[in-house]
């Protein structure tokens, strides 16, 4: 039994078709015009629409255009006593499945509706299969059975069903984009695009063009119109990674987009309506930044309707063996090999602090698999800073005062000291300093801003 919506301004046709399709066991709803039909589609999601074309208030073509906004694959069969090439062409352009002329042969119409329902069933089965494959693949990439990760899985499942903005907090390498993609893949928007952009990788002007697009002639080199990422993500999800790196001017523009759901391409006079769910991510303390005036407080509360905090790997060490096995299988599959890991190497991996989190662990295993020529990854295949790591020795090098200390302040000062020392050794060269500290240049620049060291770096570069 299928749910069929009959739409016709003539009651006699509604009654006739109700009797015809109910006799075949279908459930029937009726509407006298396109506007009523759009409301019923939104409320009940029928399997197929059988509709007249010419109707008062809202005709069939207008109805189909409205329905396609929310139900792009819904089966639609048109019937009309005023068949024309133009109306048929417009109907098929919008995705109508078939077109019959009144008066019609009842058996012919029943056959057309049957074929349309069979087509819908195949579409639904294909969509269900793809979604099952995608769901398994997406969530499968987030590894961990610890209680903290179980809570993350539950949160992903819960928030995927709503449309609120989400802010994912976590250190670099904790898997923020994996979580964002899993939320999208489990959501009703899964069939639509997932667009990701790193806000810290662009200048202010380039970021505006990337997010909102531009029109021909907006600036030198703008030879054609270009669609922005918000428009590309329409009906889908846009992931704004490292949103804390966004300039104050861009923060204002983003806030307006979130409030109005409209974007204005660079150089354009008119705005475009967009419906993209926003998931943002950061490794910075945006609440603290908003208090300091470096991140807009109103934008912070707008993007953090649902906050998700990802734990660093050192706080879920019980997940390390599962992650190690996952990455070994991943890189062995790519190279057609079969490796295990020695108990001693695993012990070293479990005992290390993993400042770079899961990403650092992944790169470590990739390196070990590439270097290992035996059947078992030995400790010698691990980097020296891991094999030489000794937390007991390190703890003895620090003297904890009897009255304790403010750990956050102490670590902050220690971080600043190492950044200054790295700049001193490299004469203010940020690229070389970042290499010494084994981090990306972008991350070093974040620390320079955090500790107000930009001017010191410039002085060191300019020193004789």
Please explain how this structure is put together.
- The chain is elongated.
- It is built from 21 helices and 16 strands.
- The model has no long low-confidence stretch (mean pLDDT 88).
- Strand 11 and strand 12 (272-273) form a beta hairpin.
- The strands form five sheets. A five-stranded parallel sheet has the order 2-1-3-4-5, with helices on both faces.
- It has helices at residues 11-22, 34-44, 60-70, 85-93, 106-140, 147-159, 176-185, 204-212, 229-232, 248-260, 286-292, 297-303, 320-335, 343-351, 357-371, 384-387, 391-396, 407-425, 430-436, 441-450, 454-462, and strands spanning 3-7, 27-31, 48-52, 75-80, 98-101, 166-169, 194-198, 213-214, 226-227, 237-241, 262-263, 272-273, 277-282, 306-309, 340-341, 376-377.
- The chain has four domains: 3-125, Rossmann fold; 150-310, Rossmann fold; 314-393, Helicase, Ruva Protein, domain 3; 407-462, Orthogonal Bundle (Arc Repressor Mutant, subunit A).
Describe the structure concisely for a colleague:
The chain has helices at residues 11-22, 34-44, 60-70, 85-93, 106-140, 147-159, 176-185, 204-212, 229-232, 248-260, 286-292, 297-303, 320-335, 343-351, 357-371, 384-387, 391-396, 407-425, 430-436, 441-450, 454-462; strands at 3-7, 27-31, 48-52, 75-80, 98-101, 166-169, 194-198, 213-214, 226-227, 237-241, 262-263, 272-273, 277-282, 306-309, 340-341, 376-377. With 464 residues, it is an alpha/beta fold.
């Amino acid at each position: 039994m299928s749910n069929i919506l009959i739409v016709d301004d003539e009651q006699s046709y509604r009654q006739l078709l109700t009797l015809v399709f109910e006799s075949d066991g279908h459930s029937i709803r009726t509407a006298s015009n396109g506007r009523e039909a759009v409301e019923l589609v939104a409320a009940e999601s029928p399997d197929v629409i059988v509709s007249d074309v010419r109707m008062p208030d809202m005709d069939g073509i207008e109805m189909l255009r409205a329905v396609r906004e929310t139900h792009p694959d819904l089966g639609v069969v048109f019937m009309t006593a005023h068949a024309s090439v133009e109306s048929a062409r417009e109907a098929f352009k919008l995705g109508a499945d078939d077109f019959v002329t009144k008066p019609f042969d009842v058996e012919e119409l029943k056959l057309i509706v049957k074929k349309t329902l069979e087509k819908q069933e195949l579409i639904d089965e294909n969509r269900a299969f793809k979604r099952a494959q995608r769901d398994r693949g997406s969530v499968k990439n987030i590894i961990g059975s610890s209680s903290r990760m179980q809570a993350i899985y539950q949160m992903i499942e819960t928030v995927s069903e709503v449309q609120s903005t989400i802010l994912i907090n976590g250190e670099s390498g904790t898997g923020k984009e994996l979580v964002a993609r899993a939320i999208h893949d489990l959501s009703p928007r899964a069939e639509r695009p997932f667009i990701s952009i790193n806000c810290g990788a662009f200048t202010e002007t380039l970021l505006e063009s990337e997010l909102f697009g531009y029109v021909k002639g907006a600036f030198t080199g703008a030879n054609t119109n270009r669609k922005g990422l918000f428009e590309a993500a329409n009906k889908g999800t846009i992931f704004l990674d490292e949103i804390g790196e966004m300039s104050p001017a861009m923060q204002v523009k983003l806030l307006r987009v979130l409030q109005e759901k409209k974007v204005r391409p660079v150089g354009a006079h008119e705005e475009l309506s967009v419906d993209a769910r926003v998931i943002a991510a950061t490794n910075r303390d945006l609440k603290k930044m908003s208090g300091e005036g470096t991140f807009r407080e109103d934008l912070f509360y707008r993007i953090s309707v649902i906050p998700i905090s990802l734990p660093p790997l050192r706080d879920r060490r019980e997940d390390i063996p599962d992650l190690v096995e996952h990455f070994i299988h991943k890189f062995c599959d790519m190279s057609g090999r079969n490796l295990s890991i020695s108990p001693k190497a695993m012990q070293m991996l479990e005992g290390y602090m993993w400042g770079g989190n899961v990403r650092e662990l992944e790169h470590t295993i990739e390196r070990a698999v590439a270097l290992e020529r035996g059947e078992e990854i030995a400790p010698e295949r691990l980097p020296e800073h891991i094999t030489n790591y000794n937390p007991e020795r390190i703890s003895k090098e620090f003297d904890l005062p009897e009255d304790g200390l403010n750990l956050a302040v102490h670590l902050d000062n220690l971080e600043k000291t190492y950044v200054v020392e790295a700049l001193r050794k490299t004469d203010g060269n940020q690229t070389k300093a970042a290499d010494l500290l084994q981090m990306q240049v972008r991350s070093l620049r974040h620390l320079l801003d955090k500790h107000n060291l930009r001017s010191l770096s410039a002085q060191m570069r300019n020193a004789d």
